[in-house]
Design a protein that fits this description.
The structure is a single chain. The protein has a domain of 122 residues: P-loop containing nucleotide triphosphate hydrolases (Rossmann fold, 3-Layer(aba) Sandwich), CATH 3.40.50.300. The chain is globular. By secondary structure, the chain is of the alpha/beta class. Helices cover 38% and strands 24% of the residues.
């Protein structure tokens, strides 16, 4: 595994009953890159994404994360290993504040247990103060520190997305995996999201994206993998992928000349 490769997926398959959703999928995500996963409807993007993030168990294949074997398992174990994800449908705690939602994401990096929370000894209080400060800093980073005390359900759609991303960043991930982060956003919100994701990458966190907005992906990603019928049909830079005959055929439904 190259020192520049953060995550390598080799020969991964996944079957649901009689449906072979993924077949011999290979994927390599470079450190400090935004890596896109695209393809027509039903291509296997979400299945691949869910296998990598532990929501589905693969039927076969190998995984390496940061040079070590990685076994996708329970979501909390995946987060502890260094992969944080968001979902297409926002999953915030609606009755909690933006700050509290981000604080929740820190649980996989805390050390004080139940007794510390009950008895509130000095170490527990110090850790809680650090969690609050860290969550506030993340809200500042995503641009909504002024909304820290706003109840999550009362935030705009775009700001809820920002809280969800901040909560994922609270786990200190090596890889941030985002499932259609631009879904439901208007043009202004998409532009702001693009800038935010680039800033996350520039600070050293790698990203894996599924997104139906191909134009957004082509202008944002460093590399792109294209799936069709559960198989990888192309991988490369956005320019290389756009010119690939197999990709053109998959999207247009015609045989490329």
């Amino acid at each position: 595994m190259s020192r520049d490769t953060l995550l390598r997926v080799t020969g991964v398959g996944k079957r649901f009953g009689g449906l072979q959703a993924l077949t011999d999928v290979n994927l390599a995500i470079t450190r400090g890159h935004i890596h896109g996963l695209i393809g027509p409807n039903g291509a296997g993007k979400t299945t691949c994404f869910n296998v990598i993030t532990g929501l589905y168990q693969p039927d076969g294949g190998q995984f390496e994360l940061a040079g070590k074997p990685y076994s996708p398992s329970a979501p909390h174990a995946v987060a502890r290993a260094g992969i944080a994800r968001t979902f297409q449908n926002i999953r915030l705690f609606g009755d909690m504040s933006a700050l509290e939602n981000v604080m929740v994401g820190r649980h996989v990096r805390t050390h004080q247990g139940v007794l510390g929370a009950i008895f509130r000894h000095s170490a527990a209080r110090a850790e809680e103060a650090h969690i609050v400060a860290h969550a506030q800093a993340l809200l500042e980073f995503v641009g909504i520190a002024h909304l820290a005390q706003r109840t999550a359900r009362h935030l705009s759609y775009g700001d809820q997305r920002r809280v969800e991303i901040a909560r994922a960043l609270a786990t200190e991930p090596l890889l941030l995996a985002l499932d259609e982060p631009a879904a439901g956003m208007n043009a202004t919100e998409k532009s702001e999201l693009r800038n935010l994701l680039k800033r996350i990458r520039d600070q050293g966190t790698s990203l894996l994206l599924i997104e139906h907005d191909v134009k957004l992906m082509m202008g944002l990603c460093d590399r792109i993998t294209v799936l069709d019928y559960g198989k990888v049909i192309a991988e490369g830079t956005p320019a290389e992928v756009q010119q690939n005959p197999a990709v053109i055929a998959a999207y247009l439904g015609v045989e490329a000349a």
